[in-house]
Amino acid sequence: MKTSFAFLLPCLSAALDPRCSQFAIDVTTNATNHAYGLTGIDNDINIVSFVLDLSRWATINQTGPSPPNLPVSGTFRIDVQLCVPPRGGGRSNTLHLLTHGLLADKQYWDVQEEQAGYSTLSYDRLGTGLSDKPNASTVVQAPLQVEILRAITDTALRGTLSPAVDRSPGSYSPPASGPIQPFKHIVHIGHSYGSFITSAFIGSYGELSSAAIVTGYIPNSKMGLFSLARFGLDYAPTNNPELYGDRTSGYVHHLAIYQSAGDFAD
Ligand SMILES: *[C@@H]1O[C@H](CO)[C@@H](O)[C@H](O)[C@H]1NC(C)=O
Ligand SMILES: *[C@@H]1O[C@H](CO)[C@@H](O)[C@H](O)[C@H]1NC(C)=O
Ligand SMILES: *[C@@H]1O[C@H](CO)[C@@H](O)[C@H](O)[C@H]1NC(C)=O
After folding, report:
1. What is the pTM of this model?
2. Closest protein CA for atom 1 of ligand 2
3. Which of 113, 190, 195, 205 lies most in the core, judged by the most C-beta atoms within 10 Å?
4. CATH architecture observed for domain 16-40+62-226
5. What pLDDT, in 10s, does the model give residues 98-133?
6. CA of 16 to the centre of ligand 1 (A)
């Protein structure tokens, strides 16, 4: 009996453990961002003006003219985690493409829980985690995030998802150093701000998606109640130079974990 248990347990855990690989891809794309003309954020004092600016009803005028267009383009390094079921199988050529919300990065997705035989790809949105962190005021905006999601989708469908930097050599088979199989279907999944990006993507490029799931998605009529002042923001590079030293203009830090309770209290 002892021998068969010893044999069984490693097999079970291997079957449950998806093969995950962490790597970075280079995404070349362009988008039409907006020049919002808000106060730049280069220190804690600027944040006070920024929050006051955005907390006035007149600032967010959805019926007013849109701010001027600001075309952006470039090659952005995006850090991803790709997990495939250990034995392949019918669902493994369907990829769940996960877009995370604000104040987080790709690590909060519980891939093992979610996976259920599907392949998953989670990525750090531009400006977060291990991805590039360009100017937060002008470059890291929703239109560019949507174009990055389109580019990742496109490469996954065409089988051209190819690591620029492999951070986990040997842990993924076939090796992540080569191109990864074309996926047959992509299911787009978002949480919170990632749901805004996902639905904007579906609106423009729905033909690239087989299905979409949005979670933590606040209806528009409630958005005004969600006050930015509650976030207790401060300037990230001064808050923790060691942790946020790679952030520049416009990167903010959520002051305290208990602040989140206030965010959702209403
Ligand atoms: C990207 O650039 C091309 C060529 O200039 C342009 O046609 C296209 O509209 C741009 N895409 C976006 C989303 O701005
Ligand atoms: C919003 O914009 C419209 C159109 O430009 C304007 O008539 C209206 O007064 C603006 N509302 C506020 C609160 O500024
Ligand atoms: C980012 O863009 C803003 C707005 O154009 C500008 O004021 C700021 O200096 C830029 N920051 C950096 C680090 O380039």
Report:
1. 0.84
2. 64
3. 190
4. 3-Layer(aba) Sandwich (3.40)
5. 999 988 899 888 766 557 888 899 999 999 999 999
6. 43
